[in-house]
Structure formats: structure tokens, C-alpha cells
From TrEMBL:
It comes from Laodelphax striatellus (Small brown planthopper). SMART domains: TPR (SM00028). InterPro entries: TPR-like_helical_dom_sf, TPR_rpt. Keywords: TPR repeat. It comes from the Eukaryota. TPR repeats lie at residues 60-93. The lineage of its organism: Eukaryota, Metazoa, Ecdysozoa, Arthropoda, Hexapoda. Gene3D superfamilies: Tetratricopeptide repeat domain. This is Uncharacterized protein.
Amino acid sequence: MFRTKKDVDRYAQDVLRRVKNERERNMRCYNIAVQYYKVRDLESTRRYVCMYLAFKDDSASAHKLLGQALEGLKQKEKALAQYRRSVELESNQPELILKICELICDQDVHVDADKARYWCERAEDLFPHDPVVFRLKERLLTNGSTNHNANFSKEFEDLISSELKSRPVDVNVHVRQLKLYVDTGRTEAAYAHAQQIEAKKLFAHELQWYDYLTTLYKIYYDKNLPDVADCEFFVNWTMAIERYVMLCLAENQNSPPKSITECGNAIYRFDEVLHKAYAMLGKCKSYGQQSLSVKRSADFLEHMSAQLCLHLATFIFKKAKNEQGNWNEATRSAAPLLLFALVLAQPSEEQNMGGTPLKLSVAGEPLKAISNTVPQWTDAALHRHCQAGHVLISLANDQRQQYVDKVLHSCYKNWRERLFQKLFTFEETKNGLSMSHFVNHLMFSSPPRSDSSILRYLDDVIVQIPKQVGATASIQPGSLHHLVWLGVQGMRHAPPPPAATLPQRMPLPPHHFHTHHLFAALAIGDSSCHHTAASHDTVNRLDVDSFLYAAEYFDKKPSIGLQILKTQ
């Protein structure tokens, strides 16, 4: 009804100007409070609903509204009191009972254990395996024990087992199980469970999972040092922390975004882990097809090094965007990194990592970590090749030869040390140069290729767009954000369409941008397409195709994109 606080202010003044007495004035305050809450003016909401409750204290909806305003104002204990009062007045509010349990779970809210147990039981009757109920049960167990004794561990482990049966793909429960293992000194069990989950790829796009997984690997490493001689562990650790960095830098995640400092810390840790992995994997003994084994391990390490370069470049751009830094300086710093990301670990047919499994071993045990994941490397390499290549083409601005020469000229002397010290300025990394793979490895000491080779790679980026679409869909499944960007790059390099008018001879983007192989779960079309009402349940492949085509044409010729949307 109203869009801004000023609109509600005018509405409130108009309503209150016409009232005849104090009682009527206060009775009108509830509707005013509701409007203020809709525009998120929480203080005005609190003030007006309190005026209403002064005359009508038995209103369950008003107490609930006051609780919502107080919760938004971070007054959680006062909000809890209002929610409880609302449920006392109107017991048939199941969602509010769950909200009460959610507030009780907060560490800043202090509630008597018996009262907390009462609300937990009420919520469990309504929502038996809700995550909020699980968290409240955990808090009750934690507060009822001292120093995580044996009884607590047994009870909590039983609770987690019960939750896993009901919610086997809930990332929160699996993370909590890993934490319980670590808290009770069972680091090896935590590591084994984590590897089982990773093998199934249940949480490949869950930032929360990889956040704790990288912590677990560090704990495992510290506990077993210097006895850690397990090459497979270093492969797992490297892959997990690389995935964590990628998710940290992503801007379209469901999880709360990481700060610039957190992103920088994650990349710094990845750089350090890669330095350790290079040292350890170099000591691993191979057997059987020795030359292939050595090549495959070298492929893995080179691929991860290229991923590090891409993530460093992405971090530079993200930092410049979020902190409103100098964009020209950011592109100068990122360009050498993008070159290395482009030319290292090329996704060529000769380097088909989905072929013969790697047979790398320690003490006679075959290393399976790499051979179980190599099919993903080609997609990741194609995605990296795509990202780095298209950005470089855009930066070159039709002067590729001159631009490449300029970037290659900057890859000399101590450019890595200067970049490292500029990016990682927080306290714990001041002495980290000696443990940096990026700073110390010889592969970054000189330009990656000749200028003519790099120009050929840039040409390949455009040719390989059909493959890049599939790789992008694999790395970022269901992300229109990435597909639109890639489609725009393809349209920029496509030949100009023939003169034609819609819809008779409308030129379409290449067939590989069709969604038949990207969103296979969607229906092709909708028989009820003439209905005026629509919801997310009616979305089909034609809708997604239309959106992709319109977005791509808007970049090249807005009038065509607008016509596509109008036809839908």
C-alpha cells in the first residue's frame, strides 16, 4: 500500500487528524503500526503498537507485531516476552511457537531450562524434525552438562543420528556431527565421515560445509604432524579449500556473503596449503604406469595453481568493487594472474583428465582421491579458461597484441612479492612469504608463454564457447547469472545478424544456449500458457530460453531483446 516511511507518515497524520477522542486515536494506532512495519520503520512500529496495547492489552496480533518490531531492534528478550504473551492469548499459532524456540536458541537470550524444555516439547509436537527444534535440543543438552562429559556425548550423538535419519541431506546436521567428533577427540572419525560425504558430493555448493571442512583438515593436519605422509589427504585438503575459496568469492550464494577480509584469508590459506601439497606430492612414490602417474599428479598441481591465479584475480576485482578502489590499478594487478590462469593446465584433449585413473601410492596403497575426481577437472579448467580469457579479451579492447606485450612486460622482477604484500595486509600474513606457493614456485617466475601462444589461446576462448556452456552448467548448475554473462560474450563475437524483423526471421543465439541439456528437469512448455496468473511452478524451458535470449540481445541490440520479451 505504501512504499516509503514518508508515505506512512502522511497516512498517519491524515488518520489521526480526523479522530475525535484519545481512545479512538489509540485504537487506530494498530493499523498505523502495521503500515510502519511493512516499510521497516521498526521504532515507529514499536511506538504506535504500544499506544494501541495501552487500551487493548488482550490483542494477540498486537503483541506479535510488537515482538517482531523488538526483534528487529535487537531487543530479543523483550521480543520473546511479547511472543509468549501472544501465544498465551491465541494458542493456535504454530509458526510463532517455532519463532519462540528460535529466539531461545540465541546465546544472548537467557531462559530458564524448564521453560525452554516446555517450548521445545510444544514445537516438537508440531514440527518433529525441524532444524530449530534440533538446535534447541542441542542447547538444552549443552546447558545441562559440564565439559561435554560422556553422558552428553552419548545423548547428543543419539540426537544427531536421529536427525540424520530424518534429514540425511541437511548440511547443518552433518557439520554438527563433524564438530562433535572433533570436540570428543575423534578427529580420525570426523575425517572419515567427511570423506564419505565428499565422495557423494552432497554439499558441493554449500559454503557452510566447506567452511568447516577446511577447518577439520587443518585440525587433522596439526594433530598428525609430523606423521602425516598421506598424499591422498593433501589432495583432499587442496580440493576442499579451493572449493571453499570459490564459494567465498561467489556473489550469488544463498549463504551470507563473506567479507573481503574473510575472502582474503581463505585465499591465503589456499596458497599455503598448495605450497605444502607440492612438497608432499613430490615425495609420493608411484607404481604401475609410472610416467602416467607422475604426469597426472603434475596435472593436478598445475590445475590447482591455475585456479589460485583465477581466484587471486577475482579477489582483486571484488576488493576494488566493494571498497570502491581504483579500477585501473585493479586491472593492472589482475592481468598477469589472468594470463597464468588462461595458459596453465589447458583443458585440451591431450590432457583429458577423465581417462586412465592415476595410480599414485604411499606404502603400497593406491591414491584414489585424484582418480575419483578427475572428471571434474576438465569442466573446472574450461570454466577458468572461459572466465580468464573473456576478461582479458575485454580488457584488450581490440588491441590484443599490444595489451599482451604490456602484461608480459609486467611479469618480471619481484612482481609477485609486491602483489602478495598488497593483497594480504592483515597481521597473520606479514611473515607468510616463505610459505606462499604463489611467491615461491618457479612456474610463476617468468611469463607463462610467448605472446604468439597467448594470442592463440585467446582465439581458442571464442571457439570453445559451446564447450564452456556445458562446463559452466556443471560448475554453476542452474545459474542464469553465469549463463547470461557467457551468452553476452558469445554474442559480442558473433557475426552481425542479417537484416530481419521479428518474429519472421529473428536470428537466434547458437543452439548450445538452449536449456534442453542445462535445465532438463523443467518441462518444455506449458499448456496453460494463456493463463494470466503465473507462479514459479509454471516456469518451463521456453521461459528460460526466452530470458537468456532477451538478456543476450539486450547487450547487443536492446530493441530486439525488448521484442523477445513482448512476445512472451
